[in-house]
Specification:
The chain is mostly helical and 366 residues long. 49% of the residues lie in helices and 9% in strands. The chain folds into three domains: 183 residues, Orthogonal Bundle (Lysozyme); 71 residues; 49 residues, Roll (Membrane-bound Lytic Murein Transglycosylase D, Chain A). The longest helix has 25 residues. It is globular and about 70 Å long.
Length: 366
């Protein structure tokens, strides 16, 4: 037999013997090529035996109600990062909310709506267009005196939006005489809830067929309440001082003869553009509109800020140009021409919806 052929045969026999030995050892438990299985100790928590919201008892004797509550409770109690962020943010916002609710004679549990709506974040926006920490739709915000324009949107102002939300919830409760129904109406609208009550001949939230989001809404609030009221029971231990501190500021009322760039206002306050925006989240453009406006500035800087604004007003005398819109021009093209933003032009000319027309005259501040 040729040497090369003998070599190939030998390699084949040796490889076969090794494979047989390997799998034989595996079958006897000597070698296991599979990766070890990692086990995770995920704690299990029982659903509370009873629950209530705004003084109204949850009918947990109903298997359907209990299962719906269990769904939201299970999701939330295991949402570790989110719960810790909620716990940190409640230290900033809950003391103020609790004081406001008590002064209005409203249930303390209503504070959990803001958690369910926005995770206590001022910048929250929904796919449907609801905005701010209390998730106001534009029309409802207008009904409750929450200002909206191209330069200002008070839906993002925690305190002003909260005041509107408390009045809205109080009106809903007076209308339905039931807090869970009022809370459901806050979520999907008074008309929808009233129509469903009439069609289904039932006025109890837990037994109404409503839009899926609304069917989960009250149960989500219940679950948030349970976990945030008893964090250590569910394994959440926030070290003392780890929560977010309330933002300390003072209010300064200014009267502006013309729009003031936010960058200039921030410089006058001795802070950055971002810091001024964070303190004043209702400012949604690059300018503060002319007229009276109350700004928040860091504590202790109010007097100096007032002086600096007066200096700016005396030194800043913008030239006002009148631009006549030509055929084919757009808001963006005009803004580029003057090195401005479309939002500034809209603010100066009280334009909503970014719509301009040929022949229209626009004020341009330079």
């Amino acid at each position: 037999m040729p040497l090369e052929r003998k070599y190939r045969l030998g390699v084949l026999v040796l490889g076969s013997m090794l494979m047989i030995g390997f799998y034989g050892a595996w079958s006897w438990g000597v070698v296991d090529p599979r990766p070890p299985i990692t086990t995770y100790n995920v704690p299990y928590f029982e659903l509370p035996a009873s629950a209530e919201l705004c003084g109204e008892t949850v009918p947990l004797e109903s298997s359907d109600v209990r299962e719906r509550f269990d769904r939201e409770f299970t999701i939330i109690v295991q949402s570790h990062a989110q719960v810790y962020l909620w716990l940190k943010r409640t230290e900033r916002y809950f003391p103020w909310i609790e004081k406001q609710l008590a002064s209005r004679g409203l249930p303390d549990d209503l504070k959990y709506l803001a958690v369910a709506e926005s995770d206590l974040m001022n910048s929250a926006v929904s796919h449907a267009g609801a905005a701010g920490p209390w998730q106001f739709m534009s029309n409802t915000a207008n009904d409750y005196g929450i200002t909206q324009s191209t330069a200002i949107d008070e839906r993002y102002d925690f305190e002003k939006a909260a005041s509107g939300a408390f009045r809205y919830l109080k009106d809903l409760h007076e209308s339905f005489q039931n807090w869970t129904i009022a809370i459901a109406a806050y979520n999907c609208g008074e008309r929808r809830v009233r129509d469903e009550i009439g069609n289904q001949k039932c006025n109890r939230y837990y037994f109404l067929k409503l839009p899926q989001e609304t069917e989960r809404y009250v149960f989500r609030i219940l679950a948030i309440k349970e976990v945030l009221e008893n964090p250590e029971k569910y394994g959440y231990h926030l070290p003392k001082g780890a929560g977010y501190k309330p933002i300390i500021f003072e209010r300064v009322k200014v009267n502006l003869p013309c729009p003031m760039p936010i960058a200039s206002a921030a410089e006058s306050a001795g802070i950055t553009y971002r810091e001024l925006k964070v303190l004043n989240p209702s400012l949604v453009s690059d300018v503060i509109p002319k007229g009276d406006f109350t700004l928040r500035v860091p504590e202790g800087r109010g007097k100096e800020f007032e002086k600096e604004v007066e200096v700016w007003k005396s030194a800043y005398k913008p030239a006002i140009l009148m631009h006549k819109v030509s055929r084919g021009e757009t808001l963006d093209s005009i803004a580029r021409k003057y090195n401005l933003t479309g939002r500034q032009i809209c603010s100066w000319n009280k334009i909503s919806g970014n719509k301009i027309r040929s022949g229209q005259t626009l004020k341009i501040y330079r």
